[in-house]
Amino acid sequence: MDFEVALLGPPSPSSPSRPRPAPLVELVLELQEELRAYLFLFMEVTCLGQAAPSCSRLRNGLWADAAFWKAYAGVCLKEHWREANAAVLRERFRVWLFHLEGDWEKDFAEVIEQDSRSEFGANFLQLLQDARYIASGLMPTDRGPRVDEFAKLACSLLKQYNPKQLDERWAAESLLSKVEQRNDVFADDQVSQVASAFAESLERSMLEQHLEGADEAHWTEPLPEGAWQTWELEEEDQSEEESFPGMHTDFGDWSPPAAAEESETDQLMAR
Predict the structure, then answer these.
(1) What confidence score (pLDDT) does residue 24 get?
(2) What is the torsion angle, in degrees rounded to the nearest 10, for the CA atoms of residue 86, residue 88, residue 89 and residue 90?
(3) pTM of the entire structure?
(4) Cβ proximity of 89 and 78 under 8 Å
(5) What is the residue-wise DSSP string for the chain?
(6) Which of 91, 167, 179, 65 has the alpha carbon at shortest distance from 125?
(7) Contacts of 194 (CB under 8 A, 6+ apart)
């Protein structure tokens, strides 16, 4: 069943141009704001974003309802909980959800630095995923020095990660895709810089693989003819130089000296 038909219901026979409210829409809007918020808390935030603009009644009962956002956002509103404007409450919820409070770009840079100083090195998979998450939550109102600094951080991550790790490479591609989609936030030169950083990482990986393959080919090349004989001669020469004098002397023709004649004392003792 089509999503729009499920929400709005089939057209009324008496007025074909105006669809009658679907039972699901009536059920949602009849709930109190707190219960309505709890219902959407069991779903992803994207479900709320897709349901709110589907019809005017849901838009008024969800997107433009300040009481709904107070119950849905809860404690993250902090000092804004008395606000009666739904747009202000939605903005506060977005800032909290995507960690865009205060100097958020400096906080992210500090996270990268601390992770780089860890014992096992930086976890680029997590850092790239965090960067993509932040990029998905930015709005055109955020454009400025902070977005510029964030783009530089994204380029730095893309230059340092290991493209040979498939999970890190997938996260890098996902970050690049998100930046390219958010042309309402990132300028053309920023998108080009991020794309160039990703392309350089792939080129570096290909070059390293080529060098590793060349080294392996060098060690696996067949030896030229006569190489083993040359090595044997070199080993023999080296062994002769390091041996002691006389070690290779032939004693086969050596005979003991002639026995000396017996002295008179020996003859007397023999008697």
Answers:
(1) 85
(2) 90
(3) 0.68
(4) no
(5) --HHHHHH-SBPSS-TTSBPPPHHHHHHHHS-HHHHHHHHHTS-HHHHHHHGGGSHHHIIIIIT-HHHHHHHHGGGGGGGTT---HHHHHHHHHHHHTT-SSSHHHHHHHHHHHHHTSTT---HHHHHHHHHHHHHH--GGGTTHHHHHHHHHHHHHHHHS-TTSHHHHHHHHHHHHHHHH-TTTS-HHHHHHHHHHHHHHHHHHHHHHHHHHHHHHHHHSPPPTTHHHHHHHHHHHHHHHHSPTTTT---TT--PPPPPPPPHHHHHHH-
(6) 167
(7) 151, 154, 155, 158, 175, 176, 179, 180, 186
Token pair belonging to 90: 């939605």
> Which residues 6+ apart lie within 8 Å of 66 measured at CB?
83, 84, 85, 86, 89
d(CA 145, CA 105): 9
Q: Which residue has the higher pLDDT, 133 or 262?
A: 133
Chain segment 58-77, per-residue pLDDT in tens: 999 999 999 999 999 888 88
Contact between 48 and 37 under an 8 Å Cβ cutoff? The reply is no
Q: How far apart are CA 52 and CA 86, in angstroms?
A: 13
Backbone φ, ψ for residue 19 (5° rounding): -70, 140
The residue type of 121 is G
For 187, the token pair is 């300028």
What is the per-residue pLDDT for 220? 52
Residue with tokens 């070690």: 247
Q: What region does 99 belong to: left with phi over 0, alpha with psi -120 to 50, or beta? A: left
